[in-house]
Amino acid sequence: MKKYSSSIIVIIMFFAFWEGLARYINAMYILPSPSKIIEKIWILRESLFKVHLPATLLVTFLGLLISIVLGVALAVAMSLSENIEKALYPIVVVTQTVPITALAPIFVLWFGYSIWSRILVTILMTFFPITVNVYDGFRSTKREMEELLITYGASKKQIFLKLKLPSALPYFFSALKISVPLSVIGAAISEWLGSQSGLGYFSKRMMTQLDGAGVFAPIVILSFAAIIFVIIINVLENKIIKWRNEV
Questions:
Q1: Which domains does the chain have, with CATH numbers?
Q2: What is the DSSP letter of 209?
Q3: 218 Cβ contact list (under 8 Å, min separation 6)
Q4: All residues at 6 or more sequence positions from 129 whose CB lies less than 8 Å from its CB, including other chains
Q5: Distance CA 28, CA 240 (A)
Q6: What's the rounded Cα separation, in Å, for the pair 2 and 181?
Q7: What was the pLDDT predicted at 247?
């Protein structure tokens, strides 16, 4: 607890300042106070937590899962073949140069307001950090260690499983910590631009009604959801990569 005491103090001071500034401005449609946002979340809890939050989480989980499968598979392929790396790595980088907000309406045009248009946006947001980080993890393997295993007669499969994979695990979890908040953002953006459910859609609907607290309410829920997911990943990382704490 002492480790995070400074952060907790800063957060309390931030929200206290926000509360005071919002009360001073006294314009709820511009800057609602934290207390009003919490009140709005409570009033709309049925709609937010039973309808819109599950819709957003479904898009987040499916998009992130597909990104993990595709990203890890591509990282493995690039680490095993230099030709594949030269052919695909530039394409992976190019995917990040196209604005997501420009592609989202195109996906809606192709797939309508179905879940797949939103999942594709989430995949584009999360695919790059997973692929690049895991690939860098494979590349971080020390060459002398690999040569040592070769002299002992280890096969390529054994080198991959015993050396490269453990080396890439910390990078994989780092990629997840980056990708989880991005997946939540991607889901919200896709819902904002084209959806009939979800927290992003709800926030957009509240904006048309000039309901400032209603706009902020889904943002607060999404932020807490992302924080919880990152904490879960940290716990899993500490349990799986025990050897790092022992070094």
A1: 34-246 (1.10.3720.10)
A2: T
A3: 48, 52, 188, 199, 200, 202, 203, 206
A4: 175, 178, 179, 182
A5: 46
A6: 26
A7: 47
